[in-house]
């Protein structure tokens, strides 16, 4: 009788661990990100990059951008504020903008 109880308990633990693994894998594959980089430069031409940025997440830039280029495979919205306030413009893959007021944040449109 004890062996049957132990086997039943092991089966329940195995199912729980298996379900957790499936959930974790499913969540990891559902997260979307653009492929490529957002490149931006400050007024002194120092270069900064954000590689494979996530979709629909506000990303604060390290410095005010004097030039910003979308080298991803998705569109990007550019904002003046650090928390995606005051939309400046939206650009597509391969496009860039300069001298647009020193944007401080961006969001990839997924």
Number of strands: 8
**How far is it from the N-terminal to the C-terminal residue, by CA?**
56 Å
> What is the share of helical residues?
25-40%
Shape: elongated
Number of helices: 1
Rg calculated over all Cα atoms: 22 Å
CATH architecture of the domain at 36-109: Sandwich
CATH C-level of the domain at 36-109: Mainly Beta
Instruction: Say what the CATH topology of the domain at 36-109 is.
Output: Gamma-B Crystallin, domain 1
**H and E order:** HEEEEEEEE
Summed over residues and divided by their number, the pLDDT gives a mean of 84
- Biggest sheet strand line-up: 2-1-4-7
Task: Please summarize the sheet with the most strands.
Answer: 4 strands, antiparallel
Structural class: alpha+beta
Strand content: 25-35%
pLDDT < 50 runs, ≥5 residues: 17-30
């Amino acid at each position: 009788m004890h062996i049957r109880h132990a086997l039943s308990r092991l089966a329940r633990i195995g199912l729980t661990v298996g379900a957790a693994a499936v959930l974790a894998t499913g969540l990891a594959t559902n997260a979307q990100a653009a492929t490529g980089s957002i490149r931006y430069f400050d007024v002194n031409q120092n270069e900064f990059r954000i590689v494979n940025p996530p979709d629909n997440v506000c990303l604060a830039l390290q410095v005010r951008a004097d030039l910003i280029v979308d080298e991803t495979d998705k569109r990007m919205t550019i904002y003046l504020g650090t928390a995606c306030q005051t939309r400046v413009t939206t650009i597509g893959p391969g496009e860039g903008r300069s001298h647009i007021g020193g944007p401080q944040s961006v969001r990839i449109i997924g």
